[in-house]
What we know:
36% of the residues lie in helices and 14% in strands. By secondary structure, it is of the alpha/beta class. α11 (292-306) links the parallel β12 (263-266) and β13.
Amino acid sequence: MTLPxxxxxxxxxxxxAGGWALLSPAWGQAARVPIADMHSHYGMLGRSLPNAxxxxxxxxxxxxxxxxxxxxxxxxxxxTDTGIAQVAVPPPGAVAAFFGESIEQMRAYLAQARLRIVxxxxxxxxxxxxxxxxxxxxxxxxFLEGKLDGLEPMVAKGLRHxxxxxxxxxxxxxxxxxxxxxxxxxxxxxxxxxxxxxxxVLVDLAHCTAAGITQAxxxxxxxxxxxxxxxxxxxxxxxxxxxxxxxxxSLAQAKQIAAAGGVVGLWGLGLQSPGPxxxxxxxxxxxxxxxxxxxxRELASLVDRLGEDHVAxxxxxxxxxxxxxxxxxxxxxxxxxxxxxxxxxxxxxxxLAYGNYVRVLKAAMSSRR
Length: 369
Ligand SMILES: [Zn+2]
């Protein structure tokens, strides 16, 4: 159950309960668990940025933090019947230019919507306390085009969360959906992990292969996230028939990330024919389209397997086409409400709803030299 809203109580009973403070406009909001989303494309992938009411929805649903994740390779990939694939090779400079322009559009939207750009631990705390803010995030370090020079200018624009790889061949490292060529991370990729640590940028290993995850964990001085995807008994392979199978993290890899203080985000993918798969022990993603209860159930199951300090929401909102269990923050709020109804151990819902992302984000920011 959620706490009653101010509308559910009469003014008289509030006064009897003893506090004018309870009548402040913020009270109805404060009664709800804040939510932090480690991976969202909300309104971002249309022709103009954004094409959906991000700020209104965040404020209405008490969304404290969103990692608003910009895929720099989006112009060179396409959805297919089985997943997402690279369809063209960007000419030199094109990804960096596209990324830089898009970040400016995002910043312009955030300024006009008066949404905080989260760049410091104080910003994070203010959002947990009642504000709503956006963590500027990159889905793939493709915008660097193999050179560290491009990182600092984007950090200066507010970038604080960098996923190393996405869907196009790149000089950083291998990714889950294509045959490997780097044996994990390249030398540049390893240097990039250190550079992110030194600049107070959270490293995100989503889409990385098992080898890359192990290498990044050995290098990183700060906890990392795998912001979105899911956890199965065995890891996915680029040879799997569908993208969602390729994107599996094994439980052993998830535990490696957790042991280093990190956090795994579960995405809000909703399948037309959810699991169990025909291969025993494999491919058991049980969430259907529009199935907020199923998404809550998968989050609770991962808390059981990985521990309450290492699970978070990484919705991938507006990033999964029609295959969504959640498509706006009202849906995500329903997921958190369902988790509260499920009577998880005390504090577990707060940790997975926002506390775990807050912890690793602040740890990454404080690693800045
Ligand atoms: Zn992704």
